[in-house]
Amino acid sequence: MARLRTRLAPAVDNWLASGYLAVVAVALTYFLGDTFFGPNSGYAAVHPVITTAPLSIAVFVLAAARRFVS
């Protein structure tokens, strides 16, 4: 248990990371609820993507740039 706590420490030690994880958890819960219980789940994945967009866009741009440079 202590080993798991040590590995998870960087993700939950500061308030910014904990807040981001909470937002992602809420977006994922909304996505799953809308997918399984909503009448029209065609756009269910849009909300988690938009919620996590700042980090997702940065990772995508860096990955694309690295691919074209190599």
Determine the mean pLDDT.
79
Give the total of beta strands.
Answer: 0
Distance between the termini: 41 Å
Rg, nearest Å? 16 Å
- Assembly status: single chain
The topology string of helices and strands comes to: HHHH
Task: Estimate the helix proportion, in percent.
Answer: over 70%
Count of separate DSSP helical elements: 4
- Overall, the morphology is flat
Percent in strands: under 5%
Class computed from helices, strands and strand pairing: mainly alpha
The low-confidence parts are: none
Provide an overview of this structure:
The protein is mainly alpha-helical and 70 residues long. The longest helix is centred in the middle third of the chain and has 23 residues. The protein is flat. The relative contact order is 0.09.
Care to give the gist of this entry?
Helices cover 81% and strands 0% of the residues. It is an all-alpha fold and 70 residues long.
Highlighted features:
70 residues; mainly alpha
List the helices and strands and how they pair.
Blueprint: H1 2-12, H2 15-37, H3 46-51, H4 53-69
